[in-house]
Amino acid sequence: MELSPLQQARYAYQPKLPAILREKIDTIAIAKGSETKPATDAAAIKDLFPHTYGLPQVAFTKGDGSSVAKKINVGVILSGGQAPGGHNVISGLFDALKNANPESKLIGFLGGPSGILNDETREITAEFLSGYRNTGGFDIIGSGRTKLETEAQFDVCAKVCHTHGISALVIIGGDDSNTNAAVLAEYFLKTRAGISVVGCPKTIDGDLKNEFIEISFGFDTATKTYNELIGNLMRDANSSKKYWHFIKLMGRSASHIALECALRTQPNACLVSEEVEAHATSLGEVVDYLTDIVAKRAEKGLNYGIVLIPEGLVEFIPEVKALIAELNTLLAKEAAAYSVLTSWETQSEFVTNHLSAPSAMVFKDLPSDIQKQLLMDRDPHGNVQVSRIETEKMLIQMVEKRLADKKAAGTFAGKFSALNHFFGYEGRCAFPSNFDADYCYSLGYNAFLLLANGCSGYISSVSNLTAPATEWKAGGIPITMMMNMEQRHGEMKPVIKKALVDLDGKPFKYFSSKRETWAVETSFVFPGAIQYYGPTEVCDLTTRTLELEHDR
Ligand code: FBP
Questions:
Q1: CATH of the domain at 36
Q2: What is the DSSP string of 175-220?
Q3: Are 470 and 371 within one domain?
Q4: Which of 50, 89, 150, 357 is deepest in the core (most CB within 10 A)?
Q5: Which residue's CA is the nearest one to ligand 1's atom 20?
Q6: Does the residue 412 lie in any domain?
Q7: Does residue 205 carry a catalytic annotation?
Q8: 540 found inside a domain
Q9: What is the structure's pLDDT at 491?
Q10: What integer is the mean pLDDT of 421-446?
Q11: Co-location of 290 and 172 in the same domain
């Protein structure tokens, strides 16, 4: 395979580790804190996790770490959507494992969690890994969205691990995968399977974070990638002064990506789904808000601009949310009757006849493309695949209609020519930024130390992330401590709480204090491409979200 010059250069990049992890590996000791408990639902969680409830938070310090030298085989799984840095988690894990004992082995399960169920493996050797260090993607072993959640699956996992002599497992995934890692760890302890499980926080969406996990990996690189593209569109709009760009940004539920991009690029508008939900803003009101900004800029002769739209928006608009919930139930319950309908006319008639009157009305008012997208296949959990709903196009059409009405009424004299974009997959496999390259390598290195010290049911934690890497702190957080009970498919389940945008948090507050100015003035900022080599203040820069959260 031909290599790009950057790819070759990145193979040679040596990720930065926190100072403690740079020590000789058998001189790194584990320090245990006091017992922990979740912030809410402690009794229910204690009941469900008798072996892993109350575990201490751990940190690494200088001391005797000679026990890490034991030969072990570690398995690794990549779970869910790609996020830049996954290859570096594996690199860090591999390097720590081989530093501790060159005879230890790292075994990758292929294609995500299904790889362990189907016993599809590949040993990760130094030579094989050398083609993946500091590169984006999950292609080293592949990923998938199969869930490991039933006891029958856990028994298969144990059997497969035993076949390969694996006594420790690293699951790299988002909130759901780490929740399942905790359930698996508990099950392995209960059944004395002899396999420890540690998770690593991954997702570009940035919604696996809390007071212990500062950010999931991949968010940094993905947002920087989108920011480059948004900045380029801003320059283009500023040059030709003739287009509005409506840009949908990934983030299945949370709007962290859109908010971070807004903080770095200062667009004319950025919708935040969590705010829309909190204020019960209707679709009509969202359209009015955007129309108003377009009209105000037009009054100043500015017939161009940039609008950012979070991917999950439609599910946060109350009437659309209700419609989607009804459609999910309807399409699941009436799957057989619906599947025989072949024309769009019969399908849409069937749907409107089965919906409640208010939802039928909302459905009828939507552009037909959006109606069709709302009826597309559900994901494995029966949810709408929001990345396939063209909210950006829908909003353009609706704003266009409002402006045409205003024009007819003589209250709008400007021009509105809009282009739509969706930035999502473009950012998930980018070469990890230096931040993500360093963070992920540290997470992987740290995950090995947790496992080698007998920790199970923990998530690898590297914190103090706005300081230089050398000052980062390394340790582990018991997953049960980050859990609460939530209703899932009609049942109360223990889950890691998904972190949505906090409307009282500093990033949102800063944005809301600036957005009125950004709406009408042209305040664009052009972040440019991710820089891998050059001055530290450019290359090691982290996200504005993290800076604001850390008061920097
Ligand atoms: P994860 O939560 O698994 O990291 O994936 C997040 C995400 O990138 C979302 O932003 C997006 O909605 C979704 O994946 C798309 O999923 P798919 O890759 O299955 O199309």
A1: 3.40.50.450
A2: HHHHHHHHHHHHHHHHTT---EEEEEEB-TT--S--SS----BTHH
A3: no
A4: 89
A5: 387
A6: yes
A7: yes
A8: yes
A9: 86
A10: 98
A11: no
Question: Under a CB-based contact definition with an 8 Å cutoff, are residues 206 and 257 in contact?
Answer: yes
495 within a domain of the structure (yes/no): no
The predicted-structure confidence for 241-259, as pLDDT tens digits, reads as follows: 999 999 999 999 999 999 9
pLDDT of 331: 87
Residues 400 and 468 in one domain: no
CB 254 within 8 A of CB 205: yes
Which atom of ligand 1 is nearest to 251's Cα? 10
243 and 369 share one domain: no
Question: Is residue 7 one of the residues assigned to a domain?
Answer: no
What is the number of structural domains in the chain? 3
- Look at 213-217, 323-327, 509-513 and tell me which has the smallest mean pLDDT: 323-327
| Catalytic choice (95, 175, 205, 438) | 205
The answer to whether residues 480 and 456 belong to one domain is yes
Per-residue model confidence (pLDDT) at position 219: 98
Task: Specify the pTM.
Answer: 0.96
Across the range 440-460, mean pLDDT stands at 98
Atom of ligand 1 nearest to the CA of 218: 4
Residue 177 Cα to ligand 1 middle (Å): 13
Q: Give the span between the Cα atoms of 517 and 293, in whole angstroms.
A: 11
- Domain match, 363 and 417 both: no
For ligand 1, pick from 78, 89, 203, 379 the residue to mutate: most ligand atoms within 8 Å of CB: 203
Determine which residue's CA is closest to atom 2 belonging to ligand 1. Answer: 203
Given a contact cutoff of 8 angstroms between Cβ atoms, the answer to whether 246 and 238 are in contact is no
Separation in Å, CA 210 to CA 83, 159, 201, 381, 546: 19, 34, 11, 25, 12
Taking the CA of residue 386 as reference, the ligand 1 atom at the shortest distance is: 12
User: HEC string of 35-53?
Assistant: ECCCCCCHHHHHHHCCCCC
CA 403 vs CA 128, 295, 296, 463: distances in Å: 57, 8, 12, 48
- Distance CA(456)–CA(49), nearest Å, equals 12
C-alpha count within 13 angstroms, C-beta hemisphere, residue 96 = 31
pLDDT digits (tens, 9 = 90+) for 288-329: 999 999 999 999 999 999 999 999 999 999 999 999 999 988
Domain that holds residue 440: 16-218+432-488
Mean pLDDT of the 425-448 span: 98
